[in-house]
## 1
Amino acid sequence: MTLRTAARLARRELRGGLRGFHIFLACLALGVAAIAGVGSVRAAIEAGMSAQGAELLGGDALAEFTYRFADDTERAWLEDRAVQVSEIVDFRSMAVVDRGGETERGLTQVKGVDAAYPLKGAVRLDPPITLEQALISGDQPGAVMAPVLADRLGLSIGDRFKLGTQSFTLTARLLAEPDDAGDGFGLGPRTIVRTDALAGSSLLEPGSLFETEYRLSLPEGTDLAALQSEAEARFEETGLRWRDARNGAPGVARFVDRLGGFLVLVGLSGLAVGGIGVSSAVRAYLASKTSVIATLRTLGADRATIFQTYFLQIGALALLGIALGLILGAAVPLLFAPLISASLPIPTLFALYPAPLAEAALYGVLTALLFTLWPLARAEEVRAAALFRDALDRARALPAPRYVVLTLLLIAALVGVAVAFSGAPALTLWTAGGLLTSLVILALAAFGIRRLARRGTPAARGRPALRWALSAIGGPRDAAGAAVLSLGLGLTVLAAIGQIDGNLRTAIARDLPEVAPSYFFVDIQKDQMPGYMDRLQSDPAVSRIDSAPMLRGIITRINGQKASDVAGEHWVLRGDRGITYAETPDARTTVTAGEWWPAGYDGPPQISFAAEEAEELGLKLGDALTVNILGRDIDATITSFREVDFSTAGIGFVMTMNPAALQGAPHTFISTVYADEAAEAAILRDLASAYPNITAIRVRDAIERVSSLLDGISEAVRWGAAATLLTGFLVLIGAAAAGEGARTYEAALLKTLGASRARILQSFALRAALLGAAAGLVALLAGILGGWAVIRFVMEGDFAVIWPSAIGIVTGGVAATLLASLAFAWRPLAARPARVLRARE
């Protein structure tokens, strides 16, 4: 027979409608929709950031320097190529309010601007005045402040506050600034002032921590790529960093890309759960077609024709499910576009984007092929003589070798596509490995549960409801397999996410404050250090003080080659890094390789590099680094590696140099203070009063900001996991619906033997509860294992089981199976035994 014959047979089979395929379509559509929806939102964000790159950046291009302003040569070059240049200085400080003998202080991210700011977009203020009007206020300079900080300090319009030693008048509340997304993560709310008003504040002294940005408005048609190449070639050695409107907020773009990639992986987990439902639906459908297949074989249909007939039929339905998923995944983001845009601090541009839809469709096609292949392969084994019930169930467990090979190729293709599209190969491979491991564990668990149920059936003598439940679980029909695999995989994803999220929160909220300092103090001038130390050392509430000289520099070259060409986009190379100097290593420094320079060393510059980061960068002892500090290149040799633990929120430097290497470079000191929480307010009051230029960062406040950011990420991930769990619940419903006939026959037999409806219902409930508890426990074990692996090996933290989440997983498993099973229990209970048994003769 030919493919045309198979197509004709498939078309005739499809005339029967979609009966038996609703769950099939729902599982496939929901999984595809989740991936398409996440991809569409990510594409909308990327399009919005691309379209408004100049507004996010605050200009067509931006040149950035650390610790200094552009010199005359750099400023002249920028002005020659731009229509207009706006200079901005950005730093952290303390806003201080004196009121009736009481002093209030709040950490703020200060932006000093000139008259040209903003080049692109507009600043929104309350009251609605211009920024120029707001920053000029009679005898004192004006300032605008974020409402959250103004409210915290109790400031009203017209009130005065200080930055350093300079007084300002609050003239307006800052509602929005056009370039806030491009400014990155700040530890404090924003305050904007004129840069020239900061001249007498003592905040921009040599060595103070600040950054300057020069926003450029360029002539129409400027070649941004060529201009970037020219800027980097001319000023690379002076520490200039360049950005332009092609990528106005690279940090946000990286975050969106990584979060979007992770959510797609969560969506793939949901699609895998849906795949189990697809496989179960196809298997149940083909089991109902045993007599049809056997009849076709008696009429001369060969194995290929049988396979092609049902492959075409299932393929047509799969394409319908994928199409429904694409429509849903494209429509939902468009429908909720206003709500999504309002909740995001970055621009979005919602439209129909073909790329994410094509990606979701490809995932759907591969998943449908992967999970329908084996049931279809088993269907071709039905022979003409096999006109008896459950012939498909008695087929061998593994199909022909060619189908096994094809399955492995499909798995490889699915993983390869995920690696290519996610942008996070390592995470994708870990996720794929975790899913496959979870499926194997769940399949083995389903097999084990059936064996245990069979062994436990005799022991349940005298308890008929339990005995019937165990008999059904351990019987020939694979009720345990569908429940444990579908619900178990969904719960596994949710359990793993719950354990990871819970451990991160525990580390941030409980463990980190126990080892973290109370305060970071920055911008301490060298001549202020004696008085600073006297105040803290005389306080019995202070248990520890760590201080170090603080400079910042950019690694521009490694062994004479451009650093990014040697080590890629590692975080150490993406911006300026903290640098210190030390004559000798302190008691908490552990040198892991090489030797520290001798005391009094004044030879060629040497560097002690953080060991873990050096390994990631591929550095070794004897490598030469070029570090640009304050526009000056320092060529130094790596002579030692040392352990640096950045997880304690204490002082940690990637690079430490010998003191002579940085001799003469203006710098300040950084210090961490470990003190009792009750003494923190007094410490801040005394030090801030004595040294107004010092900026204090309260670590607990920084932890709260990180926690709030984690809340948003966790919420997005939980929604993705919920979609996976919903798919698992749909699979359970499908399995319950498919088994309704068997339960009807079972109920009829039990009624005939004298069982009451209540006892039969109790048996159904026990069966569902046992399967749900088993699925929940197995999922919990797999989820805890996955969470432990991520926390231990990816995040390198300590792991502890989060028991509230764990108990919720098991409870959810029991509830889900009970709901799905009991929803299809009423008709079997209501059926009349005589009618059912006559139909089975």
## 2
Amino acid sequence: MPMIYLKKFLLFLLIFSAKFSLTAQVKLPALVSDNMVLQQNAKVNLWGWASPNEKINIQLGWSDAVIETTANTDGNWKVTVDIPNASEKGYTITINANNKIVLNNILIGEVWICSGQSNMYFPVGKEEGTWKTGVKNYQEEVKNASFPNIRLFTVLTNASPKPLDDVIGSWKQCSPESINTFSAVAYFFGRELYQKLNVPIGLISTSWGGTKAEAWTSQNVLEKDISFLPILQQDAKNEKLYQEKLEAYYLASINQQIASAANAPKLELKKPKKEANKTSYVLYNAMLYPLINYTMKGVIWYQGESNSGQANLYRTLFPAMVKNWRDDWKQGDFPFYYVQITPHKGQTPDIREAQLFSLKTIPNSGMAVTTDVGDANNIHPIDKQTVGHRLALWARAKTYNENKLVYSGPIYNNMKIKKQKVQLFFDYADSGLKKEGERLKEFEIAGEDQVFYPADAKIDGKTIIVSSLKVKNPAAVRFAWKAVPEPNLFNNENLPASPFRTDDWVDKVEKKL
């Protein structure tokens, strides 16, 4: 064989073998890595990619058995393994195929997904010059955040029109260095669970500021419900408008270059920007779908501000999103605990009502009321400790069976009209009700004319008696029904009552999509 052909043949073999060696490497998703926490007492997925039909052996640090599997013809593989009781011992997992991967410092405990928009994204520490101002007493919180058995995973913000296989991120031990940029609500929630349960805690933060619930919902779910189709229609309109602006920008650029050749003055052109996170289902595709193989205990959620203009729609959209997640994870009706958004001058009471209604329509859910820790002028209030604590109360009581723990403030149940007065009955008021200050505030009462007047409200055991001299025949009562209420009704466990109304009168026109 002539030398030139021999060199070409050898080069071909080199390229082919290099390509084969690259494809014949077992690869793991970002979540399956050093420092991860695996859900205790559960069947947990381990998965990844390899060359087609590649044989893979897995050795678990807590078991002598070797698990064998084979990648399918597309190179995908997944196995389900039994995880024992929680352990703070750092285990290893060894994966052998054409290459070898050793995962180190793996703990077994409780894993929670933490998602939403900016108030979930809001970090513990401060970032100068941004809305990330740090939580209350952030210097002290950061300094004391040494909990190596709490593990943190932050999903890098990303958007995609199609479902992705993986995310960008890594597991980190909780420390003053790692907690500085981690979700504050997630951290305070996880820290309380760790201190109460005494088991490792894994927190996966996947959130992005300014996002709507539809961005976290799959395309399939949105397309199947006629009430959600206007959302997708508006997305299409927005995309069309963006493309028209982009077309105009490039046309202007062409004309400017032609004009510049003739020494015409140069004009300043601005290329239109597109906010990647504002479109439906793109965050579900990029920041949620890649997580669904990872076995977890439950979800905490802090979102709603961006949907406040369509509160009635949120009543069905939010439960649909939760069902979407549960259907995909295939772990049944796992716990889903969420925050009722705090008062702010830019919000309406309708969105908090939609979240209150969701408490009844979403199975195995819980809602943390935050009317007493908001900020009328800052949509990112800094008291995230209280928010995390109230979410943790739901988890401790409902998920981890602290039977005597009161986990919610008063929730309106029903009313009775007694001549010129109305008696209000509440759930989560077994130990009684109390007020902060001299008199109860934020109660209003109306007759059939639907005109509301400030009401005189008094605590009567586990109920509230409401009346007004201006309303002879009462028909409805509202509590904290405004953008920025200042209610002072609590149960005896110091948990605030949720805003509510007893009527369903239409007195506000919602923003159209």
